[in-house]
Amino acid sequence: MAAYGVVQRRDFASPFDLADEEIVWDMSGFELPDMARLYRGHDGLREFWRDWLQAWETVEFKRLVPEDHGDHVIVEVDQRNRGRGSGVDIDFHYFQTFTVRDGKITASGMASTKAEALEAVGLSE
What we know:
alpha+beta; Nuclear Transport Factor 2, Chain: A; 6 strands
């Protein structure tokens, strides 16, 4: 859950302590077409966070419900962001998957439903 706190605080150094150098950050399942793609490695992660966070005045995680599945963690997320230019609040509800090996996040993905998240990491309900 530490990863969400560093994003909310806009801490751009700490996330790299949690992420493997070869991380694959898969946003292809997210609802924002201009960002729906794969980001690879620390440079890709920096690019994603820079682009994502510049659009928002605030980022707030309202609810985080993690489920441990061994090498995989699935987090149900309710998030509210306020647009930097518009001031409009936008609510997001999604499931984020994390694959963890040797204490580092090696992959992350997004899904609209829990079933999709489980399937993405090779599990089922």
